[in-house]
Amino acid sequence: MRQRQEEAKEAAEARKKELKAEAERRRMKLEEEDRRRRVEEAARRREVQEEDHRVWMEKMRQQRAEEVARRAREQAEQEEKDRKALETATAWWNRLSRKQMEELFAAVADRAWREEQLRVEIPEKPSMAVHFAYGVPVYSRGRYHALYGVVRPCPELASLSPQLAYHRVLVRNAQEMREFDGTLADRITQFDLPDHEQLTMD
Q1: Is the dihedral of CA 141, 146, 148, 154 positive or negative?
Q2: Is the pTM for the entire model greater than 0.85?
């Protein structure tokens, strides 16, 4: 009887050990599954992040490309506008001969001295100023070197140079003055010079 009790006790302990080992195997299996699941989730998250980053980088690259293309377009448009403006202004100035230009600048200097006792610098080679609608700025001599006026800005380009409204505009005659269509009317001084060169009699 004692032997049967011993055997029953040993069998119970063996069963208990077996159950404990089974529980340990299940726990380890669950831990392994949990670890594998976490690794897979981390890998999926990484893939999603990498894809999001790739999409974002592609979007940034596309935006940069569009920005570069837009700037190139704007620059090309501006260059075309500048080219047309220069053509227009050159045609405007080409209406005068060298002698007529000298005559006009002499009239400007004469008027400045006669009416304001002001000496002005007449440029030897007048150059058009883009920001004054391709007119030629004339400055007073001396300490202050102030802008006296703008000679013959191009009427077609006057709207592109709003600062002209704050300065004296000097043109050859009433005909040139009329080409401004009333804009700058109170700022324009005309010198009543003839449209054609005067023939000098010997």
Answers
A1: positive
A2: no
